[in-house]
Amino acid sequence: DYAVRIENVTKEYDDVVAVDDVSLNIRDEEFLTLLGPSGAGKTTLLHMIAGFTTPTSGDIHIDDEVVTNKPPYERNIGMVFQSMALFPHMTVAENIAFPLKMRRMEKVNRDERVQEMLDLIRLPEIADRDVSELSGGQQQRVAIARALSFKPSLLLLDEPLSSLDKKLREEMRHELLRIHRETNVTTVHVTHNQEEALTMADRMAVIQEGRIAQHAPTQELYAHPETAFVADFVGNTNMVYGTVVETDNPSCTVECTDSNLRIDCRTDVVGESVAEKDDVSVGIRFEDVRLGESISADNVFEATVSSVVFKGDMVNTTVQLDGTELEFKISDLNSDGNRVFERGDVVQVGWNGTDS
Ligand code: ADP
Ligand code: MG
Predict the structure, then answer these.
(1) Considering 206, 228, 250, which residue would you say is the last residue of a domain?
(2) Of 100, 148, 236, 308, which has fewest CB within 10 angstroms of its CB?
(3) How far, in Å, from the CA of 196 to the mean position of ligand 1?
(4) pLDDT score, position 331
(5) 233 found inside a domain
(6) Which residues line ligand 1 at a C-beta cut-off of 6 Å?
(7) Which ligand 1 atom minimizes the distance to the CA of 11?
(8) Is residue 82 part of a domain?
(9) What pLDDT does residue 35 have?
(10) What is the value of pTM for the model shown?
(11) Which reaction does it catalyse (predicted)?
(12) What's the number of domains the chain is made of?
């Protein structure tokens, strides 16, 4: 069953189409991530679900009720933004109780619910603190507690972790997932960070220029991106452009535009077939490329290492192929014996057709 159904929703501002004919169903209890670059229309879509923005056309259903023109307070939705926007002159308890007060819940019940929420965010002792005394991570937890205190049927998170530093951000990803597991509240999470999306989402919708480029379970979307944009935006991918010179569907040979390299590819991974002379883009994931002195794969080329960048848990190696400008970034974790190569080394680079 669906918690939210978005039907052909468009939002236009003067000369900008912020959201362009989007249809999207959100399942009960799932954690859905909307991933896309800045300006793609993520916030606009979220605000239409929340009721802060009215669609130019199309309809939004929440729990099988049309809410398209209903104001936010008539929708049972909790929301957390990047700027946490806690009420600064209130205590933690007053912040969390605020939505309950608005809903005229009695004080004794409010107090009980506040304590439940503080237990949920694992900060049971901070009820009487001023929010200004809290760390960034604690404030973020309180914002989540406030968004959930009135048991909304839907939780909307707009870049909730962007203002936190890297370490705290990673900790809070797990914290949000734990809270989702414990409450089972249907969650729509917006981010421009692909790693955050991959870590957190059950399902993912990639948004590009106001449209859904692809919507699928996270691992499926990662393994089978349907467009070059999705392949490039989700995961670390080398994009190569060329023309199909030979087909034996689902296999084909692509001659690169910028060089004479010929690459064997498989098109069944994206469920499409190609014809000769088609212009195509080929995406090859960093982790699918192997580097070594002698490797076997569908595509093997001699290459020269042009840069080696140490990244702590991996080494990004860039090579040049065939004296051309074609470059591949490769995680050296996949190279023979995890050997780290040096700039200038001549190596073999290879990957399988099924990986492109
Ligand atoms: P995202 O959240 O993905 O970064 P937004 O939804 O904020 O994207 O914006 C999508 C597009 O709509 C952008 O081009 C933005 O400039 C435009 N936009 C958003 N809100 C307004 C508004 N209130 N008035 C005019 N243009 C807007
Ligand atoms: Mg935004």
Answers:
(1) 228
(2) 236
(3) 22
(4) 72
(5) no
(6) 13, 16, 18, 36, 38-44
(7) 12
(8) yes
(9) 98
(10) 0.87
(11) tungstate(in) + ATP + H2O = tungstate(out) + ADP + phosphate + H(+)
(12) 2
